[in-house]
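Re: the 174-residue chain
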Amino acid sequence: MSTPKNNILLRNVNSTICFSCWPFFLSIMVLVLLATVSARVGYCLNPIISIAQRPLPAEINWVDAGNVHERNALWVDARSSNEYEKAHVSGSTNLNLSGWAVQFPAFAQAWRPGRTIIVYCDGGECHASQEVAERLLSALPKSSQSQKIKIYILKGGYPEWKKERKKSSSQASH
């Protein structure tokens, strides 16, 4: 039995392997391996990608926040309960990460789709308002596209609000 040089057959008791077919099978195996690896990488990166695609809360200055406040915005104080008890924006709700389990149900009762939320903390290096705002975005029920959840972070936080309110009240008394 003669065989062509490029198609040598290896005979085993149970199988016949064509050596000229190995490149084809090898390329199929590499494609399957690449598909499996890319699927795994995509699965692992999915939470990161979905976070990156989620809209981040915008900052709002105290003037615009005051205008929104008059239109029935829901104010959220992201500072500790002790800080909130000392002083807070009138009508605000205390909601922070350490008390989330207890405080969120009360907040959810007050919030309605379409109602603007303004979150503040101590400003400056404080990131509690950003963290609470992001958690609210993922915790609140998604409404229709026409009623997106509107969450803003007060630029400068409570200290800026307090300073500007003092300024505006002293100007009004003159």
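Residues 49-53 have pLDDT under 50 and may be disordered.
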